Amino acid sequence: MKKHLAALAALCLTSACASAALPPAAPMQGIAIRFDARAGDQGLRCGQSYSGIGSTGASVTLQDFRIYVSNFRLIDRDGREQALELTPDGAFQGASVALLDFENATGNCNGNSATNSIVRGRAPAGDYVGLTFDIGVPVDLNHQDTTLAAPPLNFSALTWAWRYGYKFTTIDLETGRAPDAAPSEHGASGFSIHLGSVDCGAGSPRTPPESPCTTPNRPSYRLDAFDPARQVVVLDLAALLAATDVTINDPESASGCMSTADDDDCVAIMDRFGLPFRGQASHGQRFVRAADAN
Question: How many Å apart are CA 273 and CA 182, to the nearest integer?
Fold first, then answer.
């Protein structure tokens, strides 16, 4: 009998009783990160024109504004980062990437009617005072067939060929010169900002790369003072384009910035995204900021 009790005690110490001694899981809390697309202090919306954009003070009208975001971390008062677990919704969020969509297919916009400006997730209960996140699709999801991909990676309009992957930003604009601006021989009626990974190796554009692209172009942003309960993350198109003439286009290249090193239209834009370009470090991003919610 004593041997039997001793055996039970040993079993308790190594299995069930040990499990019972584990601390309870930390309670989780829901977190909603709100975003807003703006041109300076004005909300960026379909069907409206915005003046004073870029180095020549041009006017622009929105055609598309969709951005993939990922790698969210919350910052507590001690500066520690805690991952935000995204809540898949079958439309705009997967487990590791979300799609912000600010166009609603009205006016000159050419996307679809559904929009999304909120990223939702869960994190251990805590006192969070800041936020970090990336623009971009994670490497392990970036090169796939959009016809088979789960939302929000199932939009063929938001991707290049498989070798290059997704357009992390799809910003398309109609542009017009300021009234007092002189015309240019390289004038353009539209300007796009398609940020994505480049330098993805040789091979067919219809096949994924054998190794990660050497220029990933996934900018990271850190807001050390951000309260999701009362603030929004602003994506400021006017600040992004402040040093770029959007009324002209680099000769023999696609309209606007397509992320490649030979595209002169990208020089100031990449700098303001916070990305290195042509071997030069960024002077600091100007695209993302926190602001009080309206």
Answer: 28
